[in-house]
Amino acid sequence: MAKDSSVPRYQQIKDSILEGIREARYLPGNRIPSELQLAADFGVSRMTVNKAIHDLAKAGVVTRIAGSGTFVAEAKSVSPLMDVSNIAAEIRRRGHAYSARVLVHGSGPVTEPIALQLGIRLGDIAGHAQIVHCDNGVPILLEDRFVNLAWAADFLDQDFTRITPHEYLMEACPLTDIEHTVEAVLPDPAQQAALDIPAGEPCLLVHRRTWSGQHLVSFARIWHPGSRYKLRSHTRLR
Length: 238
Description:
The protein is an alpha+beta fold. It folds into two domains: 9-72, Winged helix-like DNA-binding domain superfamily/Winged helix DNA-binding domain (Arc Repressor Mutant, subunit A, Orthogonal Bundle); 77-232, 3-Layer(aba) Sandwich (Chorismate lyase). The chain has seven helices and ten strands. It has helices at 9-22, 35-42, 46-58, 87-93, 112-118, 165-172, 189-195, and strands spanning 62-65, 69-72, 77-80, 98-109, 125-135, 138-147, 177-185, 203-212, 215-225, 229-232. The protein starts with 8 loop residues before the first helix and ends in a 6-residue tail after the last strand.
């Protein structure tokens, strides 16, 4: 391939990969040529190739997976941290197709940790839904939600493949207050399987409680794969 001698070789490699991404020769999730192949194509050392790949990885353009290769990074969805938004609406605003897989939808006695978060007694009955939300078929969020049925009595009658819990709760008992905590975690095997992510990939885990007036309505744990999602916060200080 033709090379401009005035441009450093590592930059030529970066430009070639970026051009391939722009022209859709390398799609999100696709593996790009190996360092050995790029070194041969450009007539350079692997050290030069490694610098180019390192720069692209640092910029979030590609993802390096030990033992597997280098892949075009998936575009990350962005969600506001300090607000409660409807994931289905977010995805559709981007012109993508939203879908959901309902893993759990029912009710039962709560454990002590859930009772404390939901403000009810140990063993009380609460609604429970566990849902995988997908963007163009790719899982980007695992929601595990518990609801106080005293304030959301028909929670169990909803079809959460057609309406999200957020949409239902905003209609049934409009939310007025939210509480968030966020931590980085390694998901367990069941969560990895639900999100279709490899072992060892970290997630952002949001713990969220919501109120309607004086009533504590729901507690949710929401896992966001680190490679597919990011949270944003904007605070006006004055």
